[in-house]
Automatic annotation (TrEMBL):
Keywords: Actin-binding, Calmodulin-binding, Repeat. GO terms for cellular component: actin cytoskeleton. It comes from the Eukaryota. It comes from Clytia hemisphaerica. The keyword Cell membrane does not apply. This is Calponin. PROSITE patterns: CALPONIN_1 (PS01052), CALPONIN_2 (PS51122), CH (PS50021). One of its GO terms (biological process) is actomyosin structure organization. Residues 169-190 are annotated as: Disordered. Residues 24-134 form the Calponin-homology (CH) domain. SMART domains: CH. Belongs to the calponin family.
Length: 190
């Protein structure tokens, strides 16, 4: 991991805002979700940002998690302690949850976990995976994911709706601007 300065000014302000979003209770729920699928992971317990990052940093637990939810998602992952191999595992996990159906907006970047840059995003991604698993009939966490409610209208209903003026558009109650003059008119002289 690169040695990063603590930061001053705006950098420290941004770091403080990101750290302020971290919720230990949500992290604990995420760790219990992981432990449900990967019982030998020993991730539950201390749910501080540093402890969670340390347990998930190598990406092995995350790879085992997605393979337990969707078998065969990651064919091979590395258990090496080399930095680029660990970051490769995290990348494989991110690709696998994308294929599983987790929205890109709910994902995180590899450095968010590996360098502890944005741990709230990591916890959010695990919760998003839990919601997606729950929507597919597996054990999950968090609120139930919403379902699409596509509606079909007949041609007659569409024509009837085009004649209705919505209240958001406002109403001029029959008034027009015909004959209205404000101020002095502009005259063009040659």
């Amino acid at each position: 991991m690169a040695a990063r300065p603590k930061g001053y000014g705006l950098t420290a302000e941004v770091r403080g805002k990101i750290d302020g979003k971290y919720d230990g209770e949500l992290a604990q729920q995420a760790m219990q979700f992981i432990e449900h699928y990967v019982p030998d992971s020993n991730v539950s317990g201390n749910s501080t940002s540093d402890a969670v990052a340390e347990k998930l940093k190598d990406g092995v637990v995350l790879c085992k998690l997605i393979n337990a939810i969707e078998p065969g998602s990651i064919k091979k992952f590395n258990e090496s302690k080399m930095a680029f191999k660990q970051m490769e595992n995290i990348g494989k996990f991110l690709d696998a949850i994308d294929q599983y159906g987790v929205a890109k907006s709910d994902s995180f970047q590899t450095v968010d976990l590996y360098e502890k840059q944005n741990m709230p995003a990591v916890i959010n991604a695990i919760h998003a995976l839990g919601r997606k698993a729950q929507s597919k009939g597996c054990y999950g966490i968090g609120p139930k994911e919403s379902q699409a409610n596509k509606r079909e209208f007949t041609e007659e209903q569409m024509r009837a709706g085009s004649n209705v003026i919505g209240l958001q558009m406002g109403s001029n109650k029959g008034a027009s601007q015909a004959g209205q003059n404000f101020g002095k008119t502009r005259s063009i002289m040659d």
